[in-house]
Amino acid sequence: MSLTRAIPDETTLLNFRHLLEANDLAPRILQVVNADLCRKGLMLKRGTMVDATIIAAPSSTKNADNARDPEMHQTKKGNQWFFGMKAHIGADVDSGLVHTVTTTAANVADVTQTEALLHGKEKVVHADAGYTGADKRVARKRIQWRIAAKRGKIKAMNDGPLKTAIQELETLKARVRARVEHPFRVIKRQFGFVKVRFKGLAKNTAQVITLFALSNLWMARKQRWR
């Protein structure tokens, strides 16, 4: 590869993207990147953090079909409505690097993807309150589940030593879990992926997986490789 040669034209890039999609190569790209990161000692796979982010899709019906993308859906987060898809990730708890990616429409509950986001060797799983009950959805046993308690439940407790201790525990859990947000920040801020660029989940899934593979390289770029 040369930095002095001309950048490939749009048609070449389009054909390359179609080649990746047709042969389902995006997961393979992530796999190869992660295998190298594991060899370098940057992904230890002792624990997994799971989380999801919403990627917006055009909600306008001013298009050839006069309709919104049928594979995207609407969901409410807080007091705001979003239309689009979700990118779900399983990330290494030690490094924050992404090892598994799935996608769904935005209205699919995060907890439904839990088992698909585990690589099978982790001993502990960290997740926010949206994954309450995840342990009952995963067939594999002997996993320590560190899932955030729902704020309303803690708020309803009587003030006292027990409530204080639980609040401190939740703070510690949140500090560990915060690392899972880093890959989302990279693809949205560094790579500018804040809205889907294609129609349908398949094409967007290929791009999302590729972006998380690149985010791993971005996040590992300053680490000392063993």
Detailed description of the structure:
The chain is built from six helices and six strands, in the order H-H-E-E-E-E-E-E-H-H-H-H. The chain has one domain (10-220). The protein has helices at 10-22, 26-39, 151-155, 161-177, 181-190, 201-220; strands at residues 47-56, 73-77, 80-92, 98-105, 124-127, 144-147. Strands 1, 2, 3, 4, 5 and 6 form a six-stranded mixed β-sheet that branches. The model has no long low-confidence stretch (mean pLDDT 91). The longest helix is centred in the C-terminal third of the chain and has 20 residues, at 201-220. Strand 2 (73-77) and strand 3 (80-92) form a beta hairpin.
Residue-averaged pLDDT? 91
Number of strands: 6
Radius of gyration: 20 Å
Strand content: 15-25%
Tell the overall outline: globular
Task: Tell me the count of domains.
Answer: 1
Secondary-structure element pattern, one letter each: HHEEEEEEHHHH
**Structural class label:** alpha/beta
C-alpha termini separation: 26 Å
Helicity range: 25-40%
- Tell me the number of helical segments per DSSP (H or I, 4 or more residues long): 6
The main β sheet shows up as: 6 strands, mixed
Low-confidence stretches: none
Features:
226 residues; 6-stranded mixed β-sheet; 6 helices
Summarize the structure.
With 226 residues, the chain is an alpha/beta fold.
Per-chain topology:
Elements: H1 10-22, H2 26-39, E1 47-56, E2 73-77, E3 80-92, E4 98-105, E5 124-127, E6 144-147, H3 151-155, H4 161-177, H5 181-190, H6 201-220
Parallel strand pairs: 1-5, 5-6
Antiparallel strand pairs: 1-3, 2-3, 3-4
Helix pairs in contact: 2-6, 5-6
